[in-house]
Specification:
Elements (H helix, E strand, L loop, with lengths): L11 H13 L23 H11 L27 H14 L2 E2 L3 E2 L5 E2 L2 E2 L5 H15 L7 H31 L1 H4 L1 H25 L6 E4 L2 E4 L1 H11 L18 H11 L10 H16 L1 H9 L4 H11 L17 H10 L2 H9 L23 H10 L19 H10 L12 H4 L9
Antiparallel strand pairs: 1-4, 2-3, 5-6
Length: 441
């Protein structure tokens, strides 16, 4: 019988199980549909209790031989090393790598077994520890429950929102495009009516829901503020709300987004006041842009527009400014971040602008645009940079020092999530052949 934590306590086993799911959700196309809890069952079965039971079947930490008593209550935990030993962290790494498959098999061998286009989550230990710090940052908001239950619900809403928001976007775009054909006076009256309609819908929805999806827009559509929305959900269901109301139609969580798009498209502004935190982030980001004119001009010379440059500068700042409605790749490993620095010419710029040879560890201190303790492993960057030039390493599997082993998946995200044409990127020759199938932005 599986242990279901009550609302007062979670032991080490609960945290480990929850964290494993947090890690698994970083992968794309998990082959076991049970992980996608709200997609794979009727809403009457999507209770918290059923979630815990389901997840404990997917992630069975009882299979481990632990030095640590994982059934002990949780004390003051600030890192993964406070939860389990270093040796057990390696066991956890192997477990995640060996037990779970991602991607869709596209070939059948002679025995009838599907294979091809699948991969494993081969996270370095340091990445796992770093992800646990992220997990703890969320867990401190709601310490009594599996936070991945609410994370999965957000993922479910985000997937549903794409079609719903696109429908709203088409309606409002059509309204906007009719401005010249119906006359300014009538258009102005209809604009007021549409705004009133959207306001009334928002009023109705916020009475029924405990949160709204947060985010903004660019010319390609909606940009979900994932982190702030998830934190809002965790706060709401920590004390006041004991459980999700699964009878609410998902569209009601999108009312704020619909109103925001009206403001973005028709009013040509965001009418909602930014938080003090966002205002400070905006000021800091503008200061960085003011201080980096040569970097910005370098990117312009490479063919990037202002929207893309904001994305790239945010990347060079470790995605610190995501809340400013800047497109970004939400889940990215340290080697993936190195790849982005490489693809977006940061290393080429350092060599040209500062005459840095990039053959010493300290040469990579200037790679980020901000100082952030522990954010960059200088030795790792040096190794990866040296080996990025060695095409032969691409064929020596497994070779942990070849940084572009999973470049295809990252390039797909750059193309489909950031809406950047891959022809603009600094892509190694042996990877360029895979870019011909991507859409042109």
């Amino acid at each position: 019988m599986h242990h279901v934590p009550n609302t007062k306590t979670m032991n080490r086993k609960d945290v480990l199980t929850d964290f494993c799911v947090y890690i698994l959700l970083l992968g794309d196309e998990f082959c076991n549909e049970e992980l996608f809890f709200f997609d794979s069952r009727d809403k009457t079965e999507a209770t918290y209790k059923n979630y815990v039971d389901s997840i404990q079947k997917i992630v069975n930490v009882d299979d481990f031989i632990w030095d640590t008593d994982i059934n002990k209550p949780i004390s003051n935990i600030k890192s993964l090393s406070d939860l389990i030993t270093e040796n057990e962290i390696e066991l956890l790494q192997d477990y995640i790598k060996n037990e779970f498959d991602f991607g869709y098999p596209n070939e059948i061998n002679e025995d009838g077994t599907a294979f091809g286009e699948t991969y494993k989550l081969n996270f370095p230990i340091e990445d796992i520890k770093s992800y646990f710090i992220e997990y703890l940052d969320l867990r401190k908001i709601n310490t009594s429950k599996y936070i991945t239950y609410y994370q999965q619900f957000l993922n479910y809403l985000n997937d549903l929102s794409k079609n719903a928001i696109e429908a709203t976007k088409i309606d409002i775009d059509n309204f906007y495009n009719n401005k010249s054909s119906i006359g300014i006076n009538i258009y102005s009256e209809l604009e007021d009516l549409l705004e009133s309609e959207l306001k009334n819908n928002l009023m109705k929805c916020i009475k029924n829901t405990s949160f709204q999806l947060q985010g903004g827009f660019d010319k390609f559509g909606f940009i979900l503020n994932y982190k702030d929305t998830l934190k809002t959900i965790l706060k709401q269901y920590n004390l006041k709300y004991s459980k999700l109301n699964l009878n609410i139609e998902p569209i009601q969580y999108f009312a704020l987004i619909e109103y925001e798009y009206f403001s973005f498209k028709i009013k040509e502004k965001k009418i909602f006041t930014k938080s003090e935190k966002q205002k400070k982030l905006q000021e800091e980001f503008e200061l960085i842009k003011k201080e980096k004119p040569t970097q910005i001009q370098f990117l312009k010379n490479k063919g990037f527009d202002n929207r893309e440059i904001n994305i790239i500068l945010n990347c060079f700042c470790f995605n610190k400014f995501n809340a400013l409605d800047i497109r970004h790749i939400r889940s990215i490993t340290k080697v993936g971040l190195f790849n982005l620095f490489y693809f977006f010419y940061r290393f080429e710029f350092l060599k040209k602008e500062y005459k840095i040879k990039l053959d010493l560890q300290n040469d990579f201190l200037k790679a980020p645009l901000i100082e952030k303790t522990g954010s960059i492993d200088l030795n790792m960057y040096l190794r990866y940079y040296k080996h990025s030039k060695d095409v032969l390493l691409h064929y020596q599997e497994p070779h942990n020092d070849f940084p572009f082993k999973q470049a295809k998946k990252l390039l797909t995200k750059i193309n489909e999530e950031l809406y950047i044409d891959l022809k603009k990127l600094n892509i190694p020759l042996n990877e360029q052949k895979s870019t011909k199938t991507y859409k042109k932005i």
